[in-house]
Design brief:
single chain; eight-stranded mixed beta sheet; Haloacetate dehalogenase
Length: 304
């Protein structure tokens, strides 16, 4: 099995001992450059950034991190989503970044990584200089949409069901389940956008029982009555917003398709009233489906 190093030329692999066990990252760029942390989404790992990271490393010290429970980072046990609440993961990532010498950094997240990213930026705004959110709306808004439209994003309530129901069902054919989601959410309804070397990294991770459980725990934390939504509600009630520059990237063929409110408008009415936005002509996996447009948008934003 390939280790994925050829996807990140000039990057070094790094194991970091931190809260909740060991974390894995690939790091590249000048050591004296501004740090830029990249957080991947579900059901992937750091490899999703391989078409963007080398270019971003020309100006930044890029850290592409595997989230807890994903890729090669530790997947500690958890019940009822407690270990995978985004507030808790954000605190752990702050500690991990301190371990490698970065107190302040710029931050980009896709999908579940973006949920960790905005929670980190809300809870520790002094840490984040600039924030890019790829293809999500706030968790509370996401549940408003699901509750208003029966059958929308059925993987959210499915993965959040009590253990071990979803774990058992997925475990019967992990490749079939997760590759089905990649196809369904991509703009072409197939796997053509994904480098086979990246898929070679995704498949072994999502086929491990403890990692399937970790991904379900991630969604249990983000359930309709879970801690992630509760944190959103509390912040909205207090009127808290993100003080740093925020960029919202939204896919035309997934997140913003047939929606009454764009992702950018959702962020502007909630946590990021001054956010800028870029619409990307792709499905959900814009870093792999539309790397040129996504790279250009992130390069402009993080150059500021």
């Amino acid at each position: 099995m390939a280790d994925g190093g050829d996807l990140f030329p000039g990057f070094d692999p790094l194991w970091i001992d931190g809260p909740a066990g060991r974390w894995f990252a690939r790091i590249g760029g000048r050591e004296d450059a501004t740090p830029l942390l990249l957080l991947h989404g579900f059901p992937q790992c750091h490899a999703m950034w391989h078409r963007l990271a080398p270019a971003l490393a020309e100006r930044h010290r890029v850290i592409a991190l595997d989230l807890k429970g994903y890729g090669w980072s530790a997947a500690p046990d958890s019940e009822n989503g407690e270990g995978y609440a985004k507030r808790r993961i954000a605190e752990e990532i702050v500690a991990v970044m301190e371990r490698i010498g970065h107190i302040h950094f710029r931050l980009a997240g896709h999908d579940r990584g973006a949920r960790v990213a905005y929670r980190l930026a809300l809870d520790a705004p002094g840490r984040v200089e600039r924030l890019a959110l790829l293809d999500i709306v706030p968790t509370h808004v996401q549940w408003e949409r699901i509750e208003a439209q029966a059958g929308m994003n059925p993987h959210w309530p499915f993965l959040a069901k009590p253990a071990p129901e979803p774990e058992r069902e997925i475990g019967r054919d992990p490749d079939g389940y997760f590759e089905g989601l990649l196809r369904q959410w991509s703009g072409r309804d197939d796997l053509s956008a994904f480098d086979e070397r990246a898929l070679t990294l995704y498949r072994p991770a999502w086929g491990v029982p403890e990692r399937i459980h970790a991904m379900c725990e991630d969604y249990r934390a983000g359930s309709a009555d879970g801690p992630d939504r509760a944190a959103d509600r509390a912040d909205l009630a207090e009127g808290r917003t993100l003080p740093m520059p925020v960029l919202v990237l939204a896919s035309r063929r997934y997140l913003d398709k047939d929606k009454p409110e764009t992702a950018l408008d959702a962020w502007r009415r909630t946590f990021a009233p001054k956010a800028d936005g870029v619409s990307i002509d792709s499905g959900h996996f814009m870093a792999e489906e539309a790397p040129d447009a996504t790279r250009a948008a992130l390069t402009r934003f993080f150059a500021g």
